[in-house]
Amino acid sequence: MDFINDKKRHTNLPDQFFLGGLGLSSGRLNNWRMRYGKQNNHNGAIPRGHWLEEWEREKIIQFYREHETDGYRRCTYMMIDQDIVYTSSSSVYRVLKKADCIRSWNTKSSKKGSGFDPPTKAHAHWHMDIANIKIEGVFYFLICVLDGYSRSIIYWDLRESMKDTDVGIVQQAAIEKYPDKQTRFITDNGKQFVGKEFKTFVSDNGLSHVTTSPYYPQSNGKLERFHKTIKEDCIRRKVPFNYDDAKRIISNYIEYYNRERLHSAIGYVTPDDMLNGRQKEIHLKRYQKLENRRKERAEKNQILQNSLFCEQSLTSTNMECSRNLRISAEGRSEATLCRKELEHEH
């Protein structure tokens, strides 16, 4: 471009005059003219502020492999909360997909019904159900009370039977834990929940009770899903050898579930945080961490681009100086040759 501009300035010739001799198209010349003075990236991708660095990719892969029971979305928010890597779930997925680390999950199509209004605050709905737990050939019965808004386990117990009295003990303990809450119990149509004793207890405490549709356990799906999770992630992995060991293992897992495990259905916060209204504060902190990290990446990439531009400018300057020196040397050679010719003629 310097050559063409210089010649045009001295000769006032049009662009077409130079295109044929230089083997250029008008489009390429226009592109060069638009890019003149700008940084040359050699058709390479320009670093963006949201691009992850190599150490971040390594941390993502390592963290995902260390948490075999957690999906990539849950791992994303766990890494943000633990100040490991700040990025979005889509970026985590791309990193894991490229590294061929994504675990496949056996998912089934949803069978959820319609017409159910979810709770808008904690302690509005308490789900109650019973799960069979087999330990060394003996069946025990896990009775849980789950808050429908936060997914928190309000109270639980592992009983040797599932009679009305067993259900009543768990129900009484849950109410004593939160005596000022006027909640609605949601249960299936099991005989323990439709009997006279249960109904009397609900009525005497000023509570309400609804049952799910017959032959449709999905309508109590929040607690059904918890029972599936605790069996897969706790009972089958730990393999308790007796009743006391099972209670210890279940107690530890429910403590982890309530206070540490990020729940996908409530915005990847813990049930305990949701129960106590801390979810907005957590989401705001995550957003601030992501924004700060994006700014850091953008500043680092800008410094890198400026450094490359300075190097390219220095290279261009050196080339220009070399060209000028060459022209000067050629000019001196021509002057010397002319002087010698004149001396020869004389």
Order of helices and strands: HHHHHHEEEHEHHEHHHH
Query: Order of strands in the sheet with the most strands?
Result: 3-2-1-4-5
Oligomer: single chain
Strand tally is 5
Strand fraction: 5-15%
What low-confidence regions span 5 or more consecutive residues with pLDDT below 50? none
Note the total helix count. Answer: 13
Task: Tell me about the largest β-sheet.
Answer: 5 strands, mixed
> How would you classify the helix and strand content by structural class?
alpha/beta
Name of the level-1 CATH class of the domain at 125-261: Alpha Beta
Protein name: Integrase catalytic domain-containing protein
Domain Integrase catalytic: 114-279
GO molecular function: nucleic acid binding
GO biological process, one term: DNA integration
Q: Main traits of this protein?
A:
346 residues, alpha/beta, Nucleotidyltransferase, domain 5, 5-stranded mixed β-sheet, 13 helices, 5 strands, elongated, Transposase_IS3/IS150/IS904, Integrase catalytic domain-containing protein, RNaseH-like_sf
Report on this structure.
It is a single chain. This protein has helices at residues 2-11, 15-22, 26-35, 54-66, 72-81, 89-98, 164-177, 191-194, 196-204, 221-238, 243-259, 271-275, 279-345; strands at 125-135, 138-147, 153-159, 184-187, 208-211. By secondary structure, the protein is an alpha/beta fold. Among the domains are: 3-34, no CATH class; 54-99; 125-261, 2-Layer Sandwich (Nucleotidyltransferase, domain 5). Helix 5 crosses helix 6 and helix 10 (221-238) packs across helix 11. The model has no long low-confidence stretch (mean pLDDT 82).
